[in-house]
Amino acid sequence: MQAINSESGAAVVRYELITCIACGIAFGVQANHWATVAQCGGTLHCPNGHENTFDAAAVFETEDELRAALNDARAEIVRLKGELVDARHRAEMAEARHETPVDSASAPKSDRRSHRGKRIGGSSG
Ligand SMILES: [Zn+2]
Is this model's pTM higher than 0.70 or not? Predict the structure, then answer.
């Protein structure tokens, strides 16, 4: 979409300033092209040839959208932390069930006789 300068009558082309994710160079993209990329996703190349791919789902046009996504992400973090706590608790409970109590009353007593070596074929004498 082109605007017309009311004084000069010249066409005014608006640009969005994009920063390359690979090399950091700033480059302009026509605003109408950027709007399409932001809405549908796409790839832009910086002047150094690096591909900057935009996932439509990850492009936020307004601060409100960005804040909403941030809030969603924070809620997800809280939910995942809760799941982690539950999983750790379940793991500890499972570990406790499988551990045998180690106390002298219930632990099997070692039978000394079973450890005595058997002599086969005596060489006494
Ligand atoms: Zn680049």
Answer: no
